[in-house]
Design goal:
By secondary structure, the chain is α/β, with parallel strands linked by helices. It has two domains: 104 residues, Spore Coat Polysaccharide Biosynthesis Protein SpsA, Chain A, CATH 3.90.550.10; 104 residues, Spore Coat Polysaccharide Biosynthesis Protein SpsA, Chain A (Alpha-Beta Complex). The chain is built from eight helices and nine strands. Strands 1, 2, 3, 4, 5, 6, 7, 8 and 9 form a nine-stranded mixed beta sheet that branches. 39% of the residues are buried.
């Protein structure tokens, strides 16, 4: 029997750099609705749910014909909010879809889901992309991932990894950096285990919660795809999105 796969979009009203961005609607529809519509185009998802921390978000989603679940406001991150939804929604696999990425390609979601289902050694799957020409490996806001054989994640870091020791001598690099894309696919049982663990040392040092998985010895499978979509963190990035998609 095919496993039941549910996509969850954690959506919170507070945002330090762009308050209430999920409700921004200069295109004629709220940003969170754009994300919902993009996620629904993924073939692998049986259902998509918005996990909202405010009734206004839920109302916008429901008026657009979507399914919203109200969650607590005190979650430390989107994974914790996802886990609350998992307590009441039956599924074998949950996909954590960022609530501020309205242009995420559905094929990227499908690739991560398919990889997890094909990787019995992994409890989590995610995505990595080659760096674009205008992206700097030295930027700590762009997370890097190093892979082992079979697409297994060895480490994630904000530092430029792998370090090319012979770059100054002009030597060729056999391994090139990959940018981590913040999409996560969890097996249901592991998701509950993961959120029960306290933050780990490496996780707190790098401020990367996926390191908690590795520190506990569990596998993360990484699908490598060219991903050019970016999340919306600032009003300026949202203005660029509006220009691409038209304002009302």
């Amino acid at each position: 029997m095919r496993p039941r796969i549910v996509g969850v979009i954690p959506a919170r009203l507070a945002s330090s750099r762009f308050p209430e961005k999920v409700l921004a609607s200069e295109t004629g529809k709220a940003l969170v609705v754009h994300v919902l519509e993009a996620a629904r185009r993924a073939r692998s998802l049986d259902e998509v749910i918005v996990a909202a921390d405010d009734r206004r978000i839920a109302d916008v989603v429901e008026r657009a014909g979507g399914h919203a679940v109200l969650t607590r406001v005190d979650h430390p991150n989107g994974t914790s909010r996802l886990a609350e939804v998992a307590d009441s929604v039956p599924a074998d696999v949950f996909v954590n879809i960022q609530g501020d990425e309205p242009e995420m390609e559905p094929e990227v979601v499908d690739a991560a889901v398919e990889l997890l289902l094909a990787s019995p050694w992994a409890d989590v799957a995610t995505v990595a992309s080659p760096f674009a020409a205008d992206e700097s490996v030295d930027n700590p806001n762009l997370v890097k991932v190093v892979l082992g054989t079979g697409g297994r994640a060895l480490y994630f870091s904000r530092a430029p990894i792998p370090f090319h020791r012979d770059a100054a001598k002009g030597g060729p690099a056999r391994a090139t950096p990959l940018r981590h894309v913040g999409l996560y696919v969890y097996r249901s049982a592991f998701l509950r285990q993961f959120v029960a663990w306290p933050p780990s040392a490496l996780e707190e040092t790098e401020s990367l919660e996926q390191l908690r998985v590795l520190e506990h010895g569990h596998g993360i499978a990484v699908a490598v795809r060219e991903v050019r979509s970016q999340g919306i963190d600032t009003p300026e990035q949202y203005a660029d999105f509006v220009r691409r998609h038209g304002s009302r």
